Amino acid sequence: MHPANSVIFFTVFSGAGFGLLFLLGFATMADENASFLFLFVHFGIAFAMAVAGLISSTFHLGHPERAWRALTQWRSSWLSREGVLAILTLLCGGAYALLWMFFFNPIAPLGWLTAVLALLTVWATGMIYAQIKAVRLWYRLLTPVCYLLFSLAGGMLLFLMLHAAFFGEAGPFLSSVAMVMLLIAWAAKWWWWRTRGDAPLSTPGTATGLGAIGKTRLLEAPHTSDNYLMKEMGFQIGRKHADKLRLLAIGLGGVAPVVLILMARAFGGDVVWLLLAVIVHLLGMLAERWLFFAEAKHAVMAFYR
Amino acid sequence: MTSLPQSTDRKLGLVIDLDICVGCHACVVACKEWNTGGYGAPLSDQDAYGDEPVGSWLNRVHTFEVTPRAEPGAKAVAPARVVHFPKSCLHCEDAPCVTVCPTGASFKRSDDGIVLVNEDWCIGCGLCAWACPYGAREMDGAEKVMKKCTLCVDRIYNENIPEEDRVPSCVRTCPAKARHFGDLADPDSDVSQMVAERGGYDLMPEQGTKPVNKYLPPRPKQDDLAEPINLAALAEPKATGFLGWLDDALTRIG
């Protein structure tokens, strides 16, 4: 499948932003008297990442000016649900943050609701892909699980970095939580890679029904140059580098942040190490998300083999 | 509303006979011609006369080579054969392209089962094209909205054109009569009869889309005749009567 830059950026940045918002939903329990600056920076970063991703996601649309229509079909469409949930999360989280920041009135249940909505939004993002039966690699419950776990791990890493920025050090407990969350997310992704079925669900034989007679292969394509279907569904570039990119994704997205957290524990100067951890993690996630699209094969290509 | 109807009163669709299709692509061209001036935006082309021409088409013909499996006990393996394979939207009963649509632009009509796109609502996100396992939907490069087969909804109910023209353009134009249009929910319709007689089948049944359009398989070739037919003998008919006596006499002399 064609990896659209806007969609890769959207899923990575909105994912981390909503992950941070999830954690902030429980912040009242940690410190009800958090400073204005603390809240402003935390909520500001969470909202900025989520909103930047959402705006970016409209860039691949043919008619972005009609994007509001995508909020209407939440009863049937995961893409629509994702849009509705994202807006509900931002409204609910916005109210929660503003009441806390400007009226010193942290409403804990509003925070919990924001946290739940943030999780549901990321789940819906994963389901947009997991619902597509024609792409066998995606058509699994494990797909939204991975989206969710990466969102939480990314959010936790951001939280850890900000914690170090405000309090000088990240602390052993939060550091350990972040490392465990990264480990769980990448373990799930590893499982996702390991359990993929390489045999396509549909073959030229089932696509044409001619498999009942014998071995079927394309003799002449219906068009002389690549069409929309080939460009969107027949994306091949980079598949030969898939193994290297997978190592790069794991290295930058998982191993390097853990090493940097350990370095912060060992040498101090936490915020610098952790800022670096956030940056390499996001770079690794961009590689992971690029592979998510580029590696996926679509059933329609059975008509072209 | 992009939920699918529970059931449709009729199931209008196509039956395509792979035994008859000669791969002339007339249906492809007729489809483009009609639909570029009919329902919705024109079907545009980009770089039409350049090195990499690309455009939106609602019907395309692939050509396949099928090598029959060796039958147990058969004297010889039948030779490979060429099958021309026209492909357009199958107007699935369980159309995945409809339910993924976030805007309500994609819908399946409850009265006749036709799957359509309301182009004024389409945001061009392309998710429906991803959801369709058949590649029946193509984004228009100029209009940036999703295009698909309408089953010529602007012909089949059109009382301003002669009655014999009230079928999809591809069906009307097919010179070999390989394409047939009708109601596949009615067991007595011509198309349903054809499907029953010839063993019409679904494409990619494993995708669970329940396509309405059916394909009729190529008939088996008679490659296992006891004796090969002597075509040369057919070209030299045996003379009878006076000419026969003359033939015999001259042969004896010669």
For the structure shown, list the relevant keywords.
heterodimer, A: 305 residues, mainly alpha, 2 domains, 11 helices, B: 254 residues, alpha+beta, Alpha-Beta Plaits, three-stranded mixed beta sheet, two-stranded antiparallel ribbon, 8 helices, 22% helix, elongated
Write the layout of secondary structure elements.
The complex is a heterodimer of chains A (305) and B (254).
Chain A: H1 5-24, H2 27-30, H3 36-57, H4 78-103, H5 108-130, H6 142-167, H7 172-194, H8 204-208, E1 214-220, H9 228-233, H10 242-267, H11 270-294
Helix pairs in contact in A: 1-3, 1-5, 1-6, 1-11, 3-4, 3-6, 4-5, 5-6, 6-7, 6-11, 7-10, 10-11
Chain B: E1 12-17, H1 26-35, E2 45-46, E3 54-55, E4 59-68, E5 81-88, H2 96-100, E6 106-108, E7 115-117, H3 127-131, E8 138-139, E9 146-147, H4 153-156, H5 169-173, E10 179-183, H6 190-198, E11 214-216, H7 231-235, H8 241-253
Parallel strand pairs in B: 1-11
Antiparallel strand pairs in B: 1-10, 2-3, 4-5, 6-7, 8-9
Describe the structure.
The complex is a heterodimer of chains A (305) and B (254). With 305 residues, chain A is mainly α. Helix content of chain A is 68%, strand content 2%. Chain A folds into two domains: 1-131, no CATH class; 171-305, no CATH class. In chain A, α1 (5-24) packs across α11 (270-294), α3 (36-57) runs antiparallel to α4 and α6 runs antiparallel to α11. The longest helix of chain A is centred in the first third of the chain and has 26 residues, at 78-103. The radius of gyration of chain A is 21 Å and the shape is globular. The radius of gyration of chain B is 24 Å and the shape is elongated. The interface between A and B is large, with 60 and 66 residues. β1 (214-220) of chain A pairs antiparallel with β4 of chain B.
